[in-house]
């Protein structure tokens, strides 16, 4: 498999951080630092910041994403945002199935599948998150679990639609904890996911799909992680809120 054929993507997940003025300040700080990036750079931001950030990135190489979307097109779903609403704004990416959504907001593999399909139907690119809990790893079921999450999330997604899907392997025990998976652990599971894609969609799709690692990736450990043969960039939480750190990760992915 030729890693050079795939697009590395570094995506920031701002989570529930930043008011609009703070968001503008952060994007303005990131812009010049990543202007020469050799990878795709994405900022996934809270719904309230989308318009501000879309405006701020105009003329730059930074793409904008949301952190979730609902699976219905419209209707009585108080507090929710549809994929069409995001697409109409000019949002390009959306994170689906983040472990914090699964842990705290009742997200299941089935709803992740529904949201993924809705987002793709609206023309959005999906950053689909999968990953095991610490207990799953200790019970030796990481591969099975992550394979199942991937399969269910992609149920009904066509080969053409898959071109707009990035998968983020995010071991839950590594998110926001400062505990990073080793480069070998990250690569091993990303390779398992690629194998699942190969079985579902064929070799070309498996070779072409971007599979990121996420979980306490930072300016120091990024280079080793993104250099792994099956790791095509990263989904970055905490470090995406510091412009120099985020830029250093983009730089690491540019070097590959
Ligand atoms: C995330 O939120 O997807 C994430 C990987 O967070 P952190 O980098 O802070 O572990």
List keywords for this structure.
256 residues; alpha/beta; TIM Barrel; 8-stranded parallel beta barrel; 12 helices; 43% helix; binds phosphoenolpyruvate
Could you describe the 3D structure shown?
The chain is built from twelve helices and eight strands. It has one domain: Alpha-Beta Barrel (TIM Barrel). The chain has an eight-stranded parallel barrel with strand order 1-2-3-4-5-6-7-8, surrounded by five helices. The protein has helices at 20-33, 50-56, 83-89, 99-104, 109-121, 134-138, 142-153, 159-162, 183-201, 203-208, 222-226, 243-255, and strands spanning 9-13, 40-44, 62-66, 93-96, 125-130, 165-169, 211-214, 233-236. Strand 1 (9-13), helix 1 and strand 2 (40-44) form a beta-alpha-beta unit. It is α/β, with parallel strands linked by helices and 256 residues long. Helix 1 runs parallel beside helix 12 and helix 7 crosses helix 9 (183-201). Phosphoenolpyruvate (PEP) binds at residues 13, 15, 170, 175-176, 214-217, 235-239.
Please provide a brief summary of the model.
Strands 1-2-3-4-5-6-7-8 form an eight-stranded parallel beta barrel, surrounded by five helices. The chain starts with 8 loop residues before the first strand and ends with a helix. It is an alpha/beta fold and 256 residues long.
């Amino acid at each position: 498999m030729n890693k050079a054929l795939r697009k590395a993507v570094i995506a920031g997940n701002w989570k529930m951080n930043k008011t609009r003025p703070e968001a503008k300040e952060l994007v303005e700080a990131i812009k010049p630092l990543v202007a020469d990036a050799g990878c795709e750079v994405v900022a996934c931001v809270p719904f309230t910041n989308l318009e501000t950030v879309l405006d701020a990135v105009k003329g730059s190489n930074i793409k904008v994403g949301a952190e979730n979307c609902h699976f219905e097109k419209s209707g009585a779903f108080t507090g929710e945002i549809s994929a069409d609403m995001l697409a109409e704004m000019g949002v390009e990416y959306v994170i689906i199935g983040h472990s914090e959504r699964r842990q705290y907001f009742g997200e299941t593999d089935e709803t992740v599948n529904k949201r993924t399909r809705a987002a793709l139907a609206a023309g959005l690119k999906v950053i689909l998150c999968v990953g095991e809990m610490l207990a799953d790893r200790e019970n030796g079921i990481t591969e099975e679990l992550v394979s199942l999450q991937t399969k269910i999330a992609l149920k009904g997604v066509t080969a053409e639609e898959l071109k707009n899907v990035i998968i983020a392997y995010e071991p839950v025990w590594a998110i926001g904890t400062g505990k990073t998976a080793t480069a070998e652990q990250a690569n091993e599971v990303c390779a398992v996911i690629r194998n699942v894609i190969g079985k579902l969609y064929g070799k070309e799709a498996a070779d072409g799909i971007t599979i990121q690692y996420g979980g306490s990736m930072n300016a120091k450990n990024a280079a080793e992680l993104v250099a792994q043969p099956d790791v095509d960039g990263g989904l970055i939480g905490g470090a995406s809120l510091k412009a120099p750190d985020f830029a250093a990760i983009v730089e690491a992915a540019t070097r590959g």
